[in-house]
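Long-time lurker. I teach an intro course on protein structure, and each term I like to show students one example going from raw sequence to a predicted 3D structure in token notation. This year I'd like something fresh instead of my usual example. Would anyone be willing to generate the tokens for the chain below so I can use it in lecture? Attribution to the forum is fine with me.
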Amino acid sequence: MNELSYQELEKWKANKKPFQLIDVREPDEHEAYNIGGELIPLNLIFKKPELLDFSKPIVIYCKRGIRSQLAIQRLSIRFPQAQFYNLSQGIMHLFMA
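-- Reply from a regular --
Happy to contribute to a lecture. Here you go:
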């Protein structure tokens, strides 16, 4: 599985690299804190893959990286041509400092 650190993600943003950023947490978690990703909860991402833009890398994140790993594992089987990246360690550590 491709992993991407938060620092690498910030470099992608600074370099204007095209990618889709997806938050697979629940709406209340997303409201509490987020890093600007599009909210597509884990249970919905499998039912609505048309929400994903397969023309560019897709970075998926959650609180600790576990739900995002699950999403990528399942989506990679269904869409092997897609470029998925898991945000390493999720975003919780960013808000705990």
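Some talking points for your students: The chain has one domain: 3-96. The chain has a mean pLDDT of 94.
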